[in-house]
## 1
Amino acid sequence: MTLPIASLDAGLFFEREDSFFGQAFVQTLEPRAYYAYIPYRDQRALPNFDSALDDYNFAQLFTENRYLGYDRIGDANQLTLAATSRFLNASTGAEHLRIAVGQRFYFSDQQVTLNETPRSASSSDLLVGAEGRLSDVWSVVGLMQYNLDSGNTERFNFGGRYTPAPGRVVNATYSYTRDLVDPAGGSSILKQFDLSTQWPIAGSWSVLARWNYSLADSKTLEAVAGVEYNGDCWALRLVGQRLTTSTETTSTSVYAQIELNGLARFGTNPLELLRRTVPGYQKLNESAGSVQERGGDFNDF
């Protein structure tokens, strides 16, 4: 089966000088238009190994296929309109604030489906996002998905991060989704808060922790606790994880690792777990001039 895909991406960039509270800034305005066309092909007879519906966010607004993987290619005749405004430090170019709004418009009905109800609206929900650095140590991020037809907020995420120094970070986020669809069937409301930290406690010891709690279910979804010791040329990490795997079951894992700088690591590796659960995590046994190994930056909207 042959399936052609066509897309056109266009944008403009405007900027002006401004000042707030005595600080000089460069403000940008970046409108963007993205058109995608994929003709309909009946794919019901084709097996699906790993395709799934992609999350709806700003990155997904500018992609052709609404599905992850290539076992399903969604039909499309749609236009995305979005605009972003940034406030940049006039001296250094550092970004202090970013605000974006975007929406997708459909010119034909949806025909290809994958465990979801076919779209009936002529436009998508409105996305509004903001991300900013309030100071050298504080940063915040927020995202709202709003249904203009029903007047409901479908999703709302807000988070803050405090990073006074390398190896010291505190994260707090709140997530709300009004109608979370389960691929196995059914839907539920998602209300969660997530707290995580990496913080020195005594000498060369630091504590590592993460608590992800569901307000809708009144239960802990994931808990991580551990310690890390920096011996300059070596490091010790002891981490425990308790993860809710289903309504009635949980799993517990324990990680223990000794790392000899530049030589080898022994034991079960907790670094991927720490990068995922403690955004901003940094290995303590790295020199100031080396490349920092830390969790991903605060999630873009």
## 2
Amino acid sequence: MSTAKELSEKLFYRKKSVYAAAGEEVVQGAYEYAKGYAQYLDAAKTEREAVAESIRLAEAKGFSAYKMGDPMVKGGKYYYNNRDKNLFLFTIGSDPVENGIRICAAHIDSPRIDLKQCPLYEDGGMSFFKTHYYGGILKYQWMATPLALHGVIVKKDGTRINVTVGEDDSDPVFYINDLLPHLGHDQARKPLGEAIPGEKLNVLIGSRPFDTECDSDAIKLNTMVLLNEKYGITEDDFLSSELCVVPAFKARDIGFDRSLIGAYGHDDRVCAYPALSAILEAEAPKNTLMCILADKEETGSDGNTGMKSDLMLDLINEIARAMDANPGIVRANSKCLSADVSASFDPNFPDVFEKRNTPLLSAGVVLTKFTGARGKSGTNDASAEYIGWLRGVMENAGVVWQAGELGKVDCGGGGTVAKFIAEHNIETVDLGVPVISMHAPYEVIAKVDLYEAYRAFRAFCHA
């Protein structure tokens, strides 16, 4: 007769640490895999940079640029670059495409601070950029920290100028002033969400005047002269620019054991990189595969580079046409992993988590049946059948995974691109990596969770 311990091990569901469940070989693989991920993070702090770096990696693996109407062949590897901010990679499998496409969709935009279209001004002996923050940030976290400037300026003749300042050790960095505690008593009494108004996120960029005899705007003029000398621009060129401020930090190991990675932009490049890796390393797959690296998720997925656009449908139609298949049948038989992060349980802030259903750090990739807020508002709620199929896929591949949701029921919530993909009759569920300090300028993930995400995407692609 079985003992109580044997029965509990057989019948109870318990989350397990990757270190206990997977063994030393997997752990060593995770540490090695994390090196490439850290390099990707440092090279891809904006969606434009993520697209450029992903294309570089894809071309090294034999992927070629695709234009609408081009022919496709079985075994072909293609990528479609949508305005340098959204990337689709796909490879045509050996099985009939009517069997469906395996889709991994992640986003490559992250919360940040964008420059306004007329940003440059002078006040109080300093020159500044006016800004408008992008996505959900805690504004106080961006004060008094080193920042870098990334982006593009497009002149009226079409000339495009790429800008990156603050990443090289010899570069200057930028800064948002904060109030000293000696004079900050009123500020300290305000709620965190109100203590720093958005209009005070002004980026400090200089203090030296062009000419001490100038009556006004001498510091602004000196700043503009320097920009003109370096980039050949005038102030009106800011009108057709996309410039943003991001943390000037590099990805670094965290902890004496180096088990964690601290970096800007884990949300959602910690899912984008393993999803990309899985398709790049798939040699002669049976299934037709697609990896989507989307823009605009942090602001609602709108626009022609977000997941609300019809581009995914257009490309599925192109694949179906090339393979003489019915696009409706292709979509109906397709499966998608909406690859996005989840909030890891944090023992420093336990009150907002329901521990039984919250993902734990180092316990593997997170399968999230539904997201949304409160009464499951604004979510794709994946079917039990699809979850059951995916459980089998991951367990057959030995992937360490856990179930999770985003905090307590009435504490808030969040959304992903899953619902926009599911609206097209494609089975979709969220799968991603647990994150500490999500949306902060410096987030934290566990290397073993990153690696289990890669192993999950790889198993999904070949299931």
